Structures are given as structure tokens and as C-alpha cells.
């Protein structure tokens, strides 16, 4: 188990609850969740990000996209791992997102073990 804080952003409350339950197996730190992408963007642009070790974010959300969140994150915390959650992972979109700084993807619907493996790897690699 890791002692790190994780930020999760998704407009689907069921996904947020599920991810939070899964992440409680991975970290003893705090898990911050946002279903409102505008509020999430404000959080990412705040000093509160200093204690975040990993960001997990949905790609397609109303108002602010996951790529907008990523761009804001890269300005304030360029080396923070970013795990994109998406139901639409075409090869072209994945390649474009990786060029913009996405560290890895989880395709919805996902298996718990796949999510845990990717989160653990990203946290380990960041330390």
C-alpha cells in the first residue's frame, strides 16, 4: 500500500464511487473526487495540487475535457502522473493524448486488477 494522495475526476458518480473504493486498496492517503469538471479545473490550478501524487481523469466531460485538465496540470505540476479514463480509445486518440502528456489509459469498462496495476506502476515510477 502506498501513502499518496490521488485526484479522480469523472462526471459519472458511479465511476467515481467505484474508483474510490478500488483506490482505497492502493493508498492510505487521501482520495479527492470531483464530478464537476469546472471545479476540478479550479482545484488543479490551485496550491492544493502540491500534495497530489496521481491524477485520474475522464476524457469526455461537459464543460472541461480531460485534455484541458491535463494541460492545466502540466503547467503547475509537469511530472505528476496522469491516467486517462475513457470509453473511446481509438489508436489515433491514444497517440495524440500520449503526445500531450497522458501517462497511461484505462478503458471503460475496466477490470479492478487492471486499474490497480496501472495505478501502482504510475505511483512507483513517479517515486
TrEMBL record:
InterPro entries: Bact_response_regulator (IPR050595), CheY-like_superfamily (IPR011006), Sig_transdc_resp-reg_receiver (IPR001789). Pfam families: Response_reg. One of its GO terms (biological process) is phosphorelay signal transduction system. Gene3D superfamilies: 3.40.50.2300. The modification 4-aspartylphosphate is found at residue 58. It comes from the Bacteria. The keyword NADP does not apply. Residues 5-123 form the Response regulatory domain. PANTHER family: RESPONSE REGULATORY DOMAIN-CONTAINING PROTEIN, STRESS RESPONSE REGULATOR PROTEIN 1. This is Response regulator receiver protein. It comes from Paraglaciecola arctica BSs20135.
